[in-house]
Specification:
Layout (H helix, E strand, L loop, with lengths): L10 H13 L5 H30 L7 H17 L2 H9 L6 H15 L5 H38 L3
Length: about 160
């Protein structure tokens, strides 16, 4: 926020701001970053292990193992959310659990669980897509723009 838009504080308000700032606990930023890195890496390692499992035991190729791997990670994330375990992991891991597919699945499942008493359509469906709606719209729009860029470039470069 720019200095011009800040509200002028009275001396008592300024004194309280200073008092509150002194009492505010310091955040361990480096520790949180390291913890997020290792938890996020552990989730990615789990994904790689699942992918390798599908390749070795079910005959998938590296290219085709991605879809069942993502589906498995989504299932595990939703299951852990329903059991109340994912929230405890997320409290320790911080941003490390924000890996797109598991974090998004957790957010969707949490919204569905929280609002299930309001009914399936207005409770689960409506509240679940408050979060997902913006993500889906942005994803579709980004895919559209990238598709247009690809078509334009391929027209000029001839076979991109």
């Amino acid at each position: 926020m720019s200095n011009k838009k800040k509200k002028k504080l009275t001396p008592v308000q300024q004194e309280y701001q200073d008092f509150a700032k002194q009492r505010e606990p310091k955040r361990p930023i480096v520790k949180n970053c390291v913890r997020a890195f290792f938890y996020g890496g552990a989730i990615c390692l789990l994904g790689q292990l699942i992918s390798t499992f599908y390749i070795k035991y079910f005959g998938f190729t590296k290219e085709t193992a991605g879809d069942p791997t993502v589906a498995t990670l989504i299932f595990l994330s939703v299951l852990l959310t329903a059991l109340g375990v994912y929230d405890h992991i997320a409290q320790k891991a911080g941003a490390g659990t924000a890996i797109p597919v598991t974090g998004f699945a957790n957010a969707m499942a949490s919204a569905a669980i929280e609002h299930r008493s309001e009914g399936y359509v207005l409770g689960v469906g409506g509240n679940m897509f408050k979060l997902a709606g913006s993500v889906i719209v942005f994803g579709v729009f980004a895919a559209f723009v990238i598709g247009i860029i690809k078509v334009v470039i391929s027209q000029f470069l001839g076979g991109f």
